[in-house]
């Protein structure tokens, strides 16, 4: 009886291990976007090593202009430590970077307008002018 119990236990263990090895554990892992568009002539790129989000191009950066299903910021605002908005960007629409955890924001001299609440609830950053 005891040998049979041990045999069943080992069989269950082997079956469990085989199931674990053949199960795609990352089936629900989200695709990690590292770049995209954020306006008619603006793009964004996220560097996962430096935790820097860089916006390049010209014109307006707008929360509503991102072409991906979900704007990167919505799910990753807590991961960005540095936001760099490059020369050429002239405007940031309201609420675009709200709830950010970034510590540093670099703004270009070409930036003329920052919309209402564009940086709402961003409590730990200091802004500086962008100097390439």
Structural features:
132 residues; elongated; 3-stranded parallel sheet
Folded structure, characterized:
It is a single chain. A hairpin with a 4-residue loop joins strand 2 (about 40-45) and strand 3 (about 50-55). This protein has about 130 residues and is an alpha/beta fold. The chain has a six-stranded mixed beta sheet, with no helix packed on it. The longest helix has 21 residues, at about 1-20. It contains two helices and nine strands, in the order H-E-E-E-E-H-E-E-E-E-E. The chain is about 20% helix and about 25% strand.
Query: How large a portion of the residues is in β-strands, by DSSP E?
Result: 25-35%
Question: From the helix content, strand content and strand pairing, which structural class follows?
Answer: alpha/beta
DSSP strand tally: 9
**How much is the average pLDDT?**
77
User: How are strands sequenced across the largest beta sheet?
Assistant: 1-2-3-5-7-9
End-to-end separation? 77 Å
Radius of gyration over all CA atoms, rounded = 23 Å
Q: Tell me, briefly, the overall form.
A: elongated
Low-confidence stretches: 23-31
Number of helical elements = 2
Helix fraction by DSSP (H/I, runs of at least 4)? 10-25%
**Series of secondary-structure elements, N-terminal to C-terminal:** HEEEEHEEEEE
Main beta-sheet strand count, sense and barrel state: 6 strands, mixed
């Amino acid at each position: 009886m005891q040998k049979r119990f041990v045999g069943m236990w080992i069989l269950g263990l082997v079956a469990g291990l085989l199931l674990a090895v053949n199960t795609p554990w990352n089936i629900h892992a989200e695709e990690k976007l590292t770049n995209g568009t954020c306006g008619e002539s603006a793009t964004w790129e996220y560097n996962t090593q430096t935790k820097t989000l860089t916006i390049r191009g010209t014109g307006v950066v707008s929360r509503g202009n991102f072409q991906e299903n979900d704007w990167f910021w919505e799910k990753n605002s807590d991961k960005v430590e540095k936001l760099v908005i490059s020369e050429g960007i002239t405007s940031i629409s309201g609420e675009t970077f709200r709830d950010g955890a970034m510590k540093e924001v670099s703004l270009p001299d070409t930036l003329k307008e920052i919309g209402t609440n564009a940086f709402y609830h961003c409590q730990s950053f200091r802004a500086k002018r962008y100097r390439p």
